[in-house]
Amino acid sequence: MLVSKLFGQTLREAPADADTISHQLLVRAGMIHQVAAGLYSYLPLGWRVLRKIEQIIREEMDAADGQELLLPALQPFEIWEETGRDLTFGQTLFTMKDRRDRKLCLGPTHEEVITKLARFAIRSYRDLPAMPYQIQTKFRDEPRSRGGLLRVREFLMKDAYSMHANAEDLDQTYERLIQAYKNIYDRCGLSSLMVEADSGAIGGKDSHEFMIIAETGEDEIIYCSKCNYAANSERASFAKNKPDTEESLLPLEEVSTPGKKTIEEVADFLGVPKNKTLKAIFYSADGEVVFATIRGDLEVNELKLKNTLKCVNLDLATDDEVKAAGLVAGSASAVGPSGIKVIADDSITLGNNFVVGANKPDAHLKNANYPRDFNVDTMIDIALAQAGYKCPKCGGELLSTRGIEVGHLFKLGIIFSEKLGAAFLDQDGSQKPVVMGCYGIGLGRLLAAAVEQNHDEKGIVWPRSIAPYEIYLCALSTNDEQVSQTADKLYSELTLAGFEVLLDDRDESAGIKFNDADLIGIPLRVVISPRNLKQGSVEIKKRNEKEAVLVPLEEVQEKLRGML
C-alpha cells in the first residue's frame, strides 16, 4: 500500500474530548473516526489491526474445538422477556418495532438466541459437548460512552457458547477456554491478568475476566502481594479482622450524641474506634426500602448487595423514602425497627458491644450485640475490598491497580436452558437441561487496550502480530530518480517475498514522514535516501529502539526477516 493512496490522514493534535491514550493515538494515526457518541468507523489501518486480532481469536477458538457460525443481530424481544433479562438490561437494550408492530431488539449479547438454537440442535447426550461461536456486531445503549473504543454503543465481539451434559464437562471446557484466552493475549503481544469477576447481567455461577493493566482502565483490580489471588473490586473479598480485644457482653445502654450523625463523629464523640460501631445505610431496591448494616470501619459493596437482593435497580434511598419507612438518618440501627428487610455484612459477628443508632435523633446505643439485641434477614459478605486489607487466601497485603477488561468467561449452568427449554435425552432415558458456558472478547476494546499497553511519547508501538503493516518503507527526496526507482523496486521485492509493506511515497519532509511512522507504530522503518544510496545501503530501525543500522541493499530481506 502507498501512503499517498491511503484512505484517511494523520493528525498533529488529538480531539479535545479524547480522554484516553488509545483514543488520542488511534484518531491521530488515522485508524478510527468518530461518527457519533460511542459509534466509530474503522479506517483501513485500524481495520487491518482488527482483522489480525480477529484471525488470532478464530484460530485459537478453532483449536479449542469451537465451530464458527453467525447468529442474527436483530432479535425478537419476547425471548428476552422469557428470561427476564429485558428488565436486567433495561435501557441498555436498543429496541424497535417492525411494520407489524412486533417488538424487536438489537442484540447486546446472544445467550437467548443460542439457547433457542440449542433446543433445536441438541437432542441427545450424543450431541454433546458442542461449542459454537461467532464474531459479530453487538449493540448496547451505554449511558455514557467514553475512552474511544473502550466503551461504545456498537462493537465487534467474539462470543462462544459451550453446551454440556453435566457440570464436570463444563469445568473441563472452561479450563480449556482459559488457556485459549491466554494464548490469544500472548499472540497479540499483550500482558494479561485473569481475575475473579461478577457475572452481572449475563448470570451464572463462576465468572472470570481477563484484564490488561492500564491506568486508564475503568475497573479496579484487587490483588495479593504474596499469592495469585486477584479479583475485580466488584467481586473481591478479604480477610476481615477481629478487634484486638474480646469483651464480655455488656448491657445495652442509650447515650446522648447531640448533632453526631456520621460514624466518624459518633466514634470520636464516644471515644471508640470505628470497628466498634455498626453503620446503617438505606437503599431503595426496585422501590422497596432496605436496610444494610456493616461494621463502621468498612464500606458496602453495592454490587454485592444488589446481587444479594436480586434486584434490577439499587439506589440510595431518598430522605423522603427514609422518613416514610420510619427511619432516622444518622441515628438508625437494626435494633428496634420492624417490617424492613435487613441485610447485614458478616463483619457484625467479628466483635461485640458495638455502638449503633438508637432510632431517634441525637441518641445512640452502646453494647449492641448480634443476635442478642437484633436480628437480620440475610447475613452475607457485602463489604468492599480495598488495598491494605488482608488477602482471603494467604493473609498477605492486598494491593490495587486499574485494568481494562478484554475478555469474560461465565459458567452459566442451566439458568438459560431451563427458562428456554433446551434439554437433551440422557443415557438413562431422562430429559435433562443442557449445561452451558459463555465466553466473550470485545475486539475493539482489545485493540484499544493494546495501544494503552504499547505506546510512547511519539505514538503507538504495535506488537508485530497485530500491526497494520510490518514495514514502513520511507523514501526521502522522492524527486530523486534513484531514490524513487529503488523504493519502487524494494517495495515490489519485499511484497513478493511476503512482507507487509507500507510505502511512504509522498513528497514530504523527512520530519513529517518520520513523525507519521512513529505515530502509526509499524514495527520496522526502512529509510531510502540519496545519502544512504551512495553507500549502497538503506537505514533500518525498530520502532521501539533509538538507533538505526545501515544495511546493504542486497542484504535487506535477510536482515528484515531476522529482525521480525
Summarize the structure.
With 564 residues, this protein is α+β, with helices and mostly antiparallel strands.
CATH fold call of the largest domain: BirA Bifunctional Protein, domain 2
What would you report as the Rg, rounded to the nearest angstrom? 29 Å
Principal-axis shape equals globular
Give the tally of structural domains. Answer: 3
The pLDDT mean sits at 94
Could you estimate the helical fraction of the residues in percent? 25-40%
User: How many helical stretches?
Assistant: 15
If you had to describe this structure to a student in words, what would you say it looks like?
The chain has 564 residues and is of the alpha+beta class. The protein folds into 3 domains: 3-236 and 400-452, 2-Layer Sandwich (BirA Bifunctional Protein, domain 2); 253-380, Alpha-Beta Complex (YbaK protein), CATH 3.90.960.10; 469-563, Anticodon-binding domain (Rossmann fold, 3-Layer(aba) Sandwich). It is 27% helix and 29% strand. Strands 3, 7, 8, 9, 10, 11, 12, 21 and 24 form a 9-stranded mixed β-sheet that branches. Strands 16-14-15-17-20 form a 5-stranded mixed β-sheet. It has a 5-stranded mixed β-sheet with strand order 28-27-29-30-31, sandwiched between helices. β27 (471-475), α12 and β28 (501-504) form a beta-alpha-beta unit. The protein is globular, with a radius of gyration of 29 Å.
Secondary-structure map with pairings?
Layout: H1 21-28, E1 32-36, E2 39-42, H2 44-63, E3 67-68, E4 74-76, H3 78-83, H4 85-89, E5 94-97, E6 103-106, H5 111-121, E7 132-139, E8 154-164, H6 167-187, E9 192-196, E10 207-213, E11 219-224, E12 230-232, E13 253-256, H7 263-270, E14 278-285, E15 288-295, H8 302-309, E16 314-316, H9 319-324, E17 341-345, E18 354-357, E19 363-368, E20 378-380, E21 398-413, H10 415-420, E22 423-425, E23 431-433, E24 435-442, H11 443-453, E25 455-456, E26 459-460, E27 471-475, H12 481-496, E28 501-504, H13 510-520, E29 524-528, H14 530-534, E30 537-542, E31 549-552, H15 556-563
Parallel strand pairs: 3-7, 15-17, 17-20, 27-28, 27-29
Antiparallel strand pairs: 1-2, 4-6, 5-6, 7-8, 8-24, 9-10, 10-21, 11-12, 11-21, 13-19, 14-15, 14-16, 18-19, 21-24, 22-23, 25-26, 29-30, 30-31
Helix pairs in contact: 1-11, 2-6, 2-11
